[in-house]
Write a structure and sequence with these properties.
Strand content of chain B: over 45%
Order of helices and strands of chain B: EEEEEEEEEEE
Structural class of chain A: mainly beta
Helix content of chain B: under 10%
Number of helices of chain A: 0
Distance between the termini of chain A: 41 Å
Low-confidence stretches of chain A: none
Low-confidence stretches of chain B: none
Helix content of chain A: under 10%
Mean pLDDT of chain A: 92
Radius of gyration of chain B: 13 Å
Shape of chain B: globular
Structural class of chain B: mainly beta
Largest interface: A-B, 25 and 26 residues
Shape of chain A: globular
Oligomer: heterodimer
Mean pLDDT of chain B: 93
Strand content of chain A: over 45%
Radius of gyration of chain A: 14 Å
Largest sheet of chain A: 6 strands, mixed
Order of helices and strands of chain A: EEEEEEEEEEE
Chain lengths: 113, 113
């Protein structure tokens, strides 16, 4: 059974600081996704990572994938309050599992002024 | 912008009642997914369709749950004889092809009293 683990689960940081969220998964995967969720809202797609060594950046967020280590990271640079949200990684196995996503528990990020 | 839409957005019902939710995917997306999310957790996969065919169901989907996508466009998720444990956010997502990014709707928040 595929398991996806994120850490930390809760992160409180100061504006302007850098930090990294980690996502580990237990089985070889086709691809890895990062989503953002604001309180009471749905999920917004941030990144999809397709291959080992893939790196994608959007604004202050950068995601990377190491398929050999079964690890993805979401790096936050010079955090701002608007980044406060819950961030989920999700893994797709493909094959007979179709494209169902298995999500981590989420990292609740709070950026303080 | 015609994203994924879901109705109703909120539903309060009494235990034992039946409820039905509707999801309209992004136009021309042939894959449609249902997930359930409880407070503080990541979404959990329930089922998915390719066009009108239901290709996979999770073990989470008990006999009280049924989903349809009769014409390969909108989908409905029905819960019969609701229980308090069914209280959750029910999320619908769609994608153009298998393994493509899944775009989520706003969700239907169900509260069973």
């Amino acid at each position: 059974e595929l398991k996806v683990e994120q850490n930390p689960l809760f992160l409180s940081m100061q504006e302007g600081k850098n930090y990294t969220i980690y996502c580990n998964y237990s089985t070889t995967s086709d691809r890895l996704y990062w989503y953002r969720q604001d309180p009471g809202k749905s999920l917004e797609s941030l990144f999809v990572l397709l291959s080992n060594g893939a790196v994608k950046q959007e604004g202050r967020l950068m995601a990377s994938l190491d398929t050999k280590a079964r690890l993805s990271t979401l790096h936050i640079t010079a955090a701002v309050h608007d980044l406060s949200a819950t961030y989920f990684c999700a893994v797709s196995l493909g094959g007979t599992s179709g494209s169902r996503l298995t999500f981590g528990e989420g990292t609740q990020l709070t950026v303080n002024p | 912008d015609t994203g994924v839409s879901q109705n109703p957005r909120h539903k309060i019902t009494k235990r034992g009642q039946n409820v039905t939710f509707r999801c309209d995917p992004i136009s021309e997306h042939n894959r449609l997914y249902w997930y359930r999310q409880t407070l503080g957790q990541g979404p959990e996969f329930l089922t998915y369709f390719q066009n009108e065919a239901q290709l996979e169901k999770s073990r989470l989907l008990s006999d009280r749950f049924s989903a349809e996508r009769p014409k390969g466009s909108f989908s409905t998720l029905e819960i019969q004889r609701t229980e308090q444990g069914d209280s959750a956010m029910y999320l619908c997502a769609s994608s153009l092809l298998a393994q493509e990014t899944q775009y989520f709707g706003p969700g239907t928040r169900l509260l069973v009293l």
